[in-house]
């Protein structure tokens, strides 16, 4: 049997931009992507702490150490600059493997999205 489990989580980051006139996605600082084990093009789920919106999109790599978290395209209508969001991805794995799997979870500084 296979199940779906949390693979990666960026907990409580501040949205730095919302660009409606862009092909849909979320741009994430490369440093945050590496720390949370996300790759470009990966499907992610977004939870907006400010308004309760939940939606999915895919990742675009942002500039390293920029702190960038920008929602693009239609997703830009679900957030505002300075909203706090949670970004998660999931993996499908064997039930027994899932029992010992440890996800990559990071907790950036909400003020500047840095890891320090």
From TrEMBL:
Instruction: Give me the segments passing through the membrane.
Output: none
- What is this enzyme's class at the first EC digit? lyase
Query: What lineage is this protein's organism placed in?
Result: Bacteria, Pseudomonadati, Bacteroidota, Flavobacteriia, Flavobacteriales
**Keyword terms:** Autocatalytic cleavage, Cytoplasm, Decarboxylase, Lyase, Pantothenate biosynthesis, Pyruvate, Schiff base, Zymogen
Q: Which reaction does it catalyse?
A: L-aspartate + H(+) = beta-alanine + CO2
Task: Write down the InterPro entries for this protein, in alphabetical order.
Answer: Asp_de-COase-like_dom_sf, Asp_decarbox
**Family matches, as SUPFAM superfamilies:** ADC-like (SSF50692)
Instruction: Consult the record and explain the modifications the protein receives after translation.
Output: Is synthesized initially as an inactive proenzyme, which is activated by self-cleavage at a specific serine bond to produce a beta-subunit with a hydroxyl group at its C-terminus and an alpha-subunit with a pyruvoyl group at its N-terminus.
Could you tell me the gene encoding this protein? Answer: panD
The active site consists of 25 (schiff-base intermediate with substrate), 58 (proton donor)
Q: What's this protein's name?
A: Aspartate 1-decarboxylase
EC number(s) on file? 4.1.1.11
């Amino acid at each position: 049997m296979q199940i779906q489990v949390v693979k990666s989580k960026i907990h409580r980051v501040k949205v730095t931009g919302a660009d409606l006139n862009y092909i849909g996605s979320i741009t994430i600082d490369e440093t945050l992507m590496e720390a949370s084990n996300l790759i470009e093009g990966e499907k992610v789920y977004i939870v907006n702490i400010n308004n309760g919106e939940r939606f999915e999109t895919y990742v675009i790599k942002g500039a390293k150490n920029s702190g960038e978290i920008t929602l693009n395209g239609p997703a830009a209508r679900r957030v505002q600059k300075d909203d706090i969001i949670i970004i998660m991805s999931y993996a499908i794995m064997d039930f027994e493997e899932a029992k010992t799997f440890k996800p990559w979870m990071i907790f950036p500084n909400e003020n500047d999205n840095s890891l320090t």
